[in-house]
Amino acid sequence: MLEMPYSAAVEGRNRLYDLNILAVDQFQIPMISVGNLTLGGTGKSPMTAWLVNLFLQKNVKPGLISRGYKKEKNKTNDEHTNDEHKEMRWRFPDVPHLQNTSRAQAVRQLLKHEHHEHIDVIILDDAFQHRQIRRDIDIVLLDATAPFGFEHIFPRGTLRESVSQLRRADIVVLTRSDLIDEQSRQAIKRRVLSINPTAVWSEAVHRPTSLVSQIVSQKSAVSQKLLSGESIETIRGLSALAFCGIGNPPAFRHTLETCGVRVEKLIVYPDHYSYTDGDVAELRQTAQTFGTDLILCTMKDLVKLTAPDARQQPIQAVAAEIQFSVGEETVCETLFSKLNLN
């Protein structure tokens, strides 16, 4: 019953933006939104990382803006960040990244940053429904396993808004496209293009790239660093206790299985979960009980764990990246032409 009033409110709000009744902030810098139609994980962080890498390779300087859902206070300073911010800071330490429930305010802060003159484009993370800021490109991700949110808006389904809002998308990316067959992929594509014939269609997979480990800083037993570089092939044939606090836990299990890992048990925590020392101790005990070779999680989980004791079994994350299987060249051409970054 709650679906109908929620849907009416969302559609009414969208209508007010479509009619230019609600105000929209405009900034004199190219803007990209990365978002989705559904609740849960569709791969926004890997997609954002792909964009950042693309721009850096082309000598285009990006800045990142996100809402900062479930931010927590850093134990060593007064900074409040969440898992996405911590992961992006590890991946791209020199890329400015601000979090604020008011994305417009975050943009203003970013443009006042001492290095703002070096920012050529701003990426708005998880912002398809955030229409208060004008953007040049909307990228919408659809998870291949549930692209249309079971056809119902929350709470009956997982849609944030109706599928018809795909008409606002410039680029649609079908993520985890390897989890369905070609006939299903084509059916999703036909439906999307029937709603928005001008959208750029593309397909992508999540490709595991390496293992990331925590190491304790020599200067302080409290601080920690992340170390990447171990080949993903080193875990093939091994057993693991896996855990995650993300929007799509089955996808994480699938990722591990594609790496050749025997997942003895997958422990699922709520999305954006804040781990305690007690949680970590319990995970280690469970791994001992099952006698697993590894304890594995996602990058979003690893960045929120406290520094390990060197005598303990390490907890490692599987780093994954977006890899396009269809439409990458067209996506790149669209990005640089629409943003005037050529």
Detailed description of the structure:
The protein has 342 residues and is an alpha/beta fold. The chain folds into two domains: 3-205 and 323-338, 3-Layer(aba) Sandwich (Rossmann fold); 208-321, Rossmann fold, CATH 3.40.50. The chain contains nine helices and 14 strands. It has helices at 3-18, 44-57, 83-91, 103-111, 182-195, 249-258, 277-290, 299-302, 328-338, and strands spanning 31-36, 62-66, 72-73, 80-81, 97-99, 121-125, 137-143, 171-175, 200-216, 224-231, 239-244, 262-268, 294-297, 315-326. Strands 1, 2, 5, 6, 7, 8, 9, 10, 11, 12, 13 and 14 form a twelve-stranded mixed sheet that branches. The protein has a two-stranded antiparallel sheet with strand order 3-4. The radius of gyration is 20 Å and the shape is globular. Residues 74-80 and 217-224 have low confidence and may be disordered.
